[in-house]
Amino acid sequence: MASPPRASRPAEAAWRVWAALLAVGVLWGSAFPLIRVNASALGPVGVTFARVALGALVLTLLVTAAGALRRGTTWRAIGTQLPALLLLAALNVAIPLTLVAAAIVGLNASVAAVLNATTPMATLVVAAVWLREPVRTRQMVGVLAGLAGVAVVVGGAPLDLNTSTLFAVGASLAAALSYAFGGVYTRRRFPDTSPTTLALGQQLCATVLLLPLAVITPPPGPVTAAVAAPLLVLGVGSMAVAYLLYFWILRTAGPVVASTVTLLVPLVGSAIGVGWLGEPLSLGLVAGLVIVLSSVALITHPGPRDFG
Questions:
Q1: Is the pTM here over 0.70, yes or no?
Q2: Distance of CA 99 to the CA centre of its chain
Q3: Which residue stretches of the chain are H helix?
């Protein structure tokens, strides 16, 4: 009797990639409302240091269990590239995560998640200036559409446009710019570095960079169980597990598929912010979200080269 047909290996591999992509989108998107829950108790620096340090600890344990650290290869790679990893940690972790946490104090988590989706636009500009990469017409349209989307979100969301709100918006956009520099710097400086070395190295270096700031800025409120529980999700989920999955997607399916996570993060962050935190779902937020996501699609999936 013939056995039933089994799913092909390409189909199975594709299913795993998309499952991992969804997991990363949920983990990174849920970080915005979780940070909002913790930011008032721990402060922007405190919540950032706690999640980064916890993520570094979990990554160290995972990599040790995999055997790479016992053989010393990862430690040697981190040691030989320490100055560059410190700069990467500042651009890709310490600076943007602290700015996001500071922004969420003055913004809804859903608005912050949408503003963070401008990272591909900033990356396009930074890569064009720094790496002299060509910009296609469709991508230029995407950048302009993204700027319009930001204006719609800020102007149409239920926000009091005071100094505090404008600072929070500026911090969100500055975080996106820092991510952009971090991404371009990674491509330029670490083309042959393993994902394990990058993930663990930047987490450990970011922990070291944030430690002095965490010491001089103690938490404004008590650290209770209600504060600690979201930190576990932030540290273990969005910092350790999500980065390992993301680098696996990048290696397995390539940068185009991996960039799709940028479309998922604001959707998840907005949905949780509205559904869990009770944030208002305004027409301006929805319209701005659609415009920003459309611009991200134009930038990350530029289509044929002869478009422009």
A1: yes
A2: 12
A3: 9-66, 68-71, 73-80, 82-89, 95-106, 109-116, 119-130, 137-156, 163-189, 195-216, 225-232, 242-253, 255-259, 261-275, 283-300
- How remote is the C-alpha of 207 from its chain's centroid? 17
Cβ-contact 212, 79 below 8 angstroms: no
pLDDT digits (tens, 9 = 90+) for 167-216: 999 999 999 999 999 988 988 888 888 888 888 999 999 999 999 999 99
Give the up-direction half-sphere exposure of residue 97: CA atoms within 13 A in the CB hemisphere. 28
Quote the CA–CA distance of 27 and 242 in Å, as a whole number: 6
Instruction: Give the separation between CA 172 and CA 97, rounded to whole angstroms.
Output: 10
> How large is the greatest C-alpha to C-alpha distance in the chain, in angstroms?
74
Other Cβ atoms less than 10 A from the Cβ of 234: the count is: 25
Residue range 273-301, pLDDT digits in tens: 999 889 888 888 899 999 999 998 888 77
Do 39 and 105 meet the contact criterion of CB atoms below 8 Å apart?
yes
